[in-house]
Design goal:
Blueprint (H helix, E strand, L loop, with lengths): L1 E13 L2 E10 L2 E6 L5 E7 L4 E4 L1 E6 L12 H10 L2 E6 L10 H14 L3 E7 L5 H9 L4 E5 L11 H13 L3 E5 L3 H13 L7 H4 L3 H15 L5 E4 L5 H12 L4 E5 L1 H5 L5 H4 L12 H13 L4 E2 L8 H5 L18 H10 L5 H15 L17 E11 L18 E11 L2 E5 L2 E2 L14
Parallel strand pairs: 1-4, 1-5, 6-7, 7-8, 8-9, 9-10, 10-11, 11-12, 12-13
Antiparallel strand pairs: 1-2, 2-3, 5-14, 14-15, 15-16, 16-17
Bound molecules: (4S)-2,6-dioxohexahydropyrimidine-4-carboxylic acid and zinc ion (ZN) (2 copies).
Length: 449
Amino acid sequence: MVVDCVVKNGRIILPTGITDASLIIDKGIIIGIIKSSEPKADKIIDAKGNYVLPGMVDTHVHLRDPGNTERENFESGTRAAAAGGVTTIIDMPNTVPATVTVKALEEKKRIASKKALVDYGFIGGAGEVPEEDLRHLAKAGVTAFKSFMIARFKELAASDYRLIKNFEVISDENLPCMIHAENQNIVEKGMEEAKLLGRHDAIAHCEFRPAIAEIEATMRSIILARQSEVHLHICHMTVAEAVDILELAQSEGQDVSGETSTNYLILNEEIMKEKGPYAKVDPPLRKPEDQIRLWEALNDGIINILASDHAPYTKEEKEKGWDNIFDAPSGGVVIETSLPLMLNSVNEGKISLERLCEVFSANPAILNSLYPKKGTMQLGSDADLVIVDLDKKFKIQGEKLKSIQKITAYEGMTGIGFPILTMVRGNTIYEEDQVVGKPGYGKFVSPLE
Ligand code: DOR
Ligand code: ZN
Ligand code: ZN
């Protein structure tokens, strides 16, 4: 038998641990994990003793397509994903139009099918929408829903009353609800106060959008979700007390998970002084004490998901924030740098390689009902993988990013540990700093399959 591909000499991260073995791939699927003589193959990839990880499944990505394709789009964003070892992206609903109807979802599917280099799924928006719309989106294959407790994206913002109603429907559809947890009133009044005081320096974004806004909203979302059996997923957690609340809810048996990103693990509010608007994200960067708690929680299982929260804006939009931080939009270019930064953290002893694969591959695939097709390398799984060189040094430079935005809050940062090859369904899409995948190769994934 001649198979399509063999990946040999790799140290493979399996759910059971690290194994020196060869991966046998045929028709885009893993059909063997063997230690002895490999079958003949059309293509042999020599991993040269490097680690072979399951492809990353990034459950929090804003590709801006349709609506703001100058910020990012399905082609540029998935090129960046390929370079960052991300083989499946889950796109957020705050596009224009927002993904709150089946029509908008179908339009996105059409766009992505022509442009994407990696596989993709979609999150439906759960704002002030009729129950029927949520049900139709679920039937059309969204992997999850997202609600905002702040009014920034008005079609996706839900009142407490509506959250309770939405949670019931979403739970009935067996999907999770992701939440952006910040208290609208505290955020709004904080901005007004900053204005009154004439504060528009970078750090004012952190000071006047305080941790209590996130802590309160995290607590409230958990209480509202108790009314139903919904799986509540708290996005981009940043602050120690919110993690304590999450831990308490989990200890009481509630189905609630938490997510954080490299923004909050690697950066803190100090960096606002240097990077200004480029480090402006919502919720804002916090304090070193919070980072300690986030790392602990990520390692001990309270936070079980890492996602990039890739949310690009143009340089022009960001630059406005130097004069007045409140004039710059919140969000950063991160999909490509998340894995290298985490590999560097593996080298620094902050997280194990196995745990990194759980939080950035297996658990997000499980959350989006895509496991074990995605998020693992088991027999029958899609052959999505990333080979990483844990000794390869890197320096982050905006101008070298594959995203259309050549800007990053991590500019100039160095580290050790870099992806050297990314494969989606048996085909190499990134190798030796070059994206070799083709637009249109990526496939729609959903819980319906
Ligand atoms: O910083 C952020 N940017 N936080 C969000 O919640 C939204 C995102 C965006 O889409 O720009
Ligand atoms: Zn958010
Ligand atoms: Zn986001």
